[in-house]
Amino acid sequence: MTYRHILLITLGATLGAQARVASPESITTTTADGRTVTVTAINPNILKVTNMAPGEQPLPSRATVLTNEGYRPDIVSVGHFTTTLTTSAGVTAIVDDRTGALTITAGPGKVVTDPGLRTLRDGRTELALSTTSTGSMYGAGERGHKLNLRGDTLVMFNRQNYGYTGSDPRINQMNITMPLFVSTDGFALVFDDYARAEMILGNPVKYITENPRPVTYYFVNGASTLADVTEQLTALTGRQDLTPFWSLGYITSKYGYHDQAETVGVVDTLKRAGYPVDGIVLDLYWYGKEQDMGRLAWDPEQWPNPAKMLAGLKARGVNLVAISQPYVLRNGRAIDNYNELTEKGLLLKDTTGAQQEVKIWVGEGGMFDVSNPDTRAWLSDRYRKLTDTGITGWWGDLGEPEVHPLTGMHANGLTAPLYHNQYGNDWSEIIYDLFKKEYPDTRLMTMMRGGTTGLQRYSVYPWSTDVSRSWGGLEPQVRIMLNSGLSGLGYMGHDVGGFAVDPDNAYIPELYVRWLQLGLFSPILRTHAQQYAEPYKYPQYASIIAPLIKERYRWLPYNYTLAWENASKGYPLVRPLNFTEPGHAYDSISDEFLWGPDVLVAPVMTEGTVERDITFPAGQWVDMADPTKVFDGHTTVTYPAPLEVLPLFARAGAFIPMADYRMGNTGDYNPARLTVQYYPVAGVDSEFTMFDDDRVSTGTIARGDYRLITFTGKQGGNRISIEAKGTYPGAPLNIDLVLVINRAAGPATFRVNGRNMKAKYDAAAHTLTLRLRWPVDRLLTLESKDFKTL
Fold it and tell me: Rounded distance, CA 707 to CA 714, Å?
């Protein structure tokens, strides 16, 4: 039938509504009081809901990228007083044509009821949505005070919290706020707004905003798990481009490297000490001193030949990221820029039309109005000229914005309270668009600590701002990464080692080691502090620290696959224990997480600890330090964890691809060499798909210029297959493969593509090792009749 059983009907006010219309993708009701309620099926799992009074229009969406592109619901029907839309995923929306009330149903625990009313309170608009959900609620951007946000009142107004700790109540409102949440019941709600607001996660869920225009919201359905919801959510709000490969290496940073000699000297010292390094970050001294903020030019005395320095660093595999801020001060050497920008009207104005005065901790001046197209063009031109000298990436600091006078009026007509949260997105977009235009085949890394929903679309690598160097500062970092990741920010990181130093307790070697252990399995491994930032500052623990940083490079094949999962599905790299486990939550656990699909990380985050309790999620988990030990899911054990131990566990049956050779930087990575650690457990079948491309070009996923290698284990390890699909320019035709089969009970012979091969058996480690030269255009099969697991 036409439009798959769709009915298109318009009825009169005799049914209590002025009009009701069903179109191929949406239903619309205009109630007796003139409100228009429209429900649009964006895809089978996402519904868009608008509710507008006569003459109203919402602000153009900045949070979402997904629109209806020809999707048609299975059924749109008109009843006596209702209009119904049902999608192929079983999501149903029923609108009461008399009142505009809406009920969305997607299964148990996934019923949302909107009474259709928009209440005005103190000049703010309130939406109240009742749900049948009883599950945990995560997300809302960067939140560190707790994991499950149910019952909380969350302020949507980005705020800097210098020197915070885990017990600090300020961290329920951090630098990146997003009016959205995901539920363990398998759905999400997204309010398409960036004005100052509150989201109250009770029942009903209330959203109270200062936005004078109507706010659209989205219902996002997931099949059953947080993984399903995350995939749908990021389809709506956007996904991050594939990361620069070098960003997965080690990056050094400090507040700050003062001059060219110091910068080169830090890299020299790291190299002499045997540390691999891929990046260095310059804080504000590259343009002079603090008071020169907004200068956006190299200081010629401190940096006599920046182009030569940058070229020299790049030749050694070291990429440089430079800081910039939203402010242009007139009390330093940015005065020329200040005068030019003032004359051209490119700085923030106040409500009278005069230039807005801005005071920060190092001076006075103005603020870039990044909503102004001319300001954006001016900044883009400056960034271009500096990037041309050899700067690889950009750091947008203070981008909440940290100081944003509420009397400010932006060029787009929005006051500071209405625009504040969006500032970081628009600032990031300037750099993103510049690279797309001027450097279209260069992958971008932009560090940004402010923004809102959709920030990830601009190749942003956020961090959890100026955390205290203390055990209390370390404590909330897992929660921050988890809530951010479930909000779409898959690369949320932290200042490894702790930034904000207490002068009376600046040097804490044990804390540095434990923080670095967490950093090893964080999206970005970047040490940063006011003092004692670099790993060589802790020679007493060099035997622990150096192997940790080198280990980061060993994990590159696995970690790069996580980057592909983020770019293609929106999955965060750091995942909650219940990411693929429906109906279960581990909300009281703030010191464990999944690193991708198959690795459980349980860092030690308290002082003087030599053992810790570890709770295992569903399934079975193999101790990577002693694979003879297997732990059942939903159990808790006490595990020894002296300072040199980071507890790691592989999911039963996991294949972990590794680069088991020495690297000085990621440029030494060789895709023709691969070691795979396999952790078979009797009765467990498993599969893992590894991603590879040229690791440099943009758009490889969209073009199909990549290779997927799928590892499959059957019958507890007695049958293994390895298959490659796809290729890319420069891809190796053969791979020197080392397959390490853990948990082997004794020697075994494998039939490898029809030829018998005896594996090398290590009785002490209980491993079997096979070394193969694999032509990747052939399916590789390994079968054994005598292999047995422990």
Answer: 23
Burial classification of residue 647, based on how many CB atoms lie within 10 Å of its CB (0-12 exposed, 13-18 middle, 19 or more buried): buried
Please report how the helices 556-569 and 226-237 are oriented relative to each other, as an axis angle in degrees rounded to 10. Answer: 60
Q: How is residue 319 written in tokens?
A: 């990429």
Q: Could you count the other beta carbons within 10 Å of the beta carbon of residue 583?
A: 13
Calpha distance 614→635 (Å, rounded)? 8
Give alpha helix (H) positions in 607-720: 700-703
Check residue 717 and give its pLDDT.
Answer: 85
Alpha carbon distance, N-terminus to C-terminus of the chain: 59
pTM across the whole model = 0.97
CA distances to 27, 141, 368, 459, 502 from 199, in Å? 27, 12, 29, 27, 35
Of 457, 492, 460, 458, residue with least CA distance to 478: 492
Residue whose C-alpha is closest to residue 453's, from 171, 217, 652, 145: 217
DSSP 8-state secondary structure symbol assigned to residue 437: H
Per-residue b or e along 484-500, where b marks 16 or more CB atoms closer than 10 Å to that residue's CB: bbbbbbbbbbbbbbbbb
3-state secondary structure of 654: coil
* Residue 19: other Cβ atoms inside 10 A: 15
The three-state secondary structure class of 233 is helix
Q: How far is the C-alpha of 769 from the C-alpha of 141, rounded, in Å?
A: 45
Strands (DSSP E) contained in 652-718 are 655-658, 673-678, 686-692, 707-714
Q: Which two tokens stand for residue 181?
A: 């949440």
pLDDT at 74: 83
Residue 467 tokens, joined: 């955390």
Q: Among 192, 400, 565, 592, which one carries the catalytic annotation?
A: 400
- The mean pLDDT values, 10 residues at a time, for the chain of 790 residues are 30 41 80 93 96 90 86 85 94 95 96 91 92 97 98 98 97 98 98 98 97 96 96 98 98 98 98 98 98 98 98 98 98 98 98 97 98 98 98 98 98 98 98 98 98 98 98 98 98 98 98 98 98 98 98 99 98 98 93 98 98 98 98 98 98 98 98 98 97 98 98 94 98 98 97 96 98 98 96
Residue type, 627: P
Is 397 tagged catalytic?
Answer: yes
- Note if the bond before 256 is cis, omega within 30 degrees: yes
223 C-beta neighbours (distance < 10 Å), count: 16
Q: Are strands 319-324 and 393-396 parallel, antiparallel or unpaired?
A: parallel
E strands within 371-456? 393-396, 408-409, 446-448
d(CA 711, CA 781): 10
Is 400 known to be catalytic?
A: yes
- 8 Å CB contact between 493 and 103: no
The per-residue b/e assignment along 616-642, b for 16 or more CB within 10 angstroms, e otherwise, is bbebbbbbbeebeebbebeeeeebebe
Name the catalytic one among 397, 426, 495, 623: 397
Distance CA 573, CA 521 (A): 9
Q: How far is 278 from 669, CA to CA, in rounded Å?
A: 12
> Which of 466, 475, 587, 693 does the annotation list as catalytic?
466
Please give the full DSSP string across 107-155, using - where no structure is assigned: STT-EEEE-S--EEETTEEEEEEEE---S-EEEEES--S-S--TT-EEE
For residue 346, give the amino acid letter: L
Contact 358, 365 (CB under 8 A): yes
User: Nearest-CA neighbor of 329 among 289, 302, 384, 386?
Assistant: 289
Distance between CA atoms of 489 and 704, rounded to whole angstroms?
A: 24
Strand partners, 761: 768
What is the number of other CB atoms lying within 10 angstroms of the CB of residue 118? 18
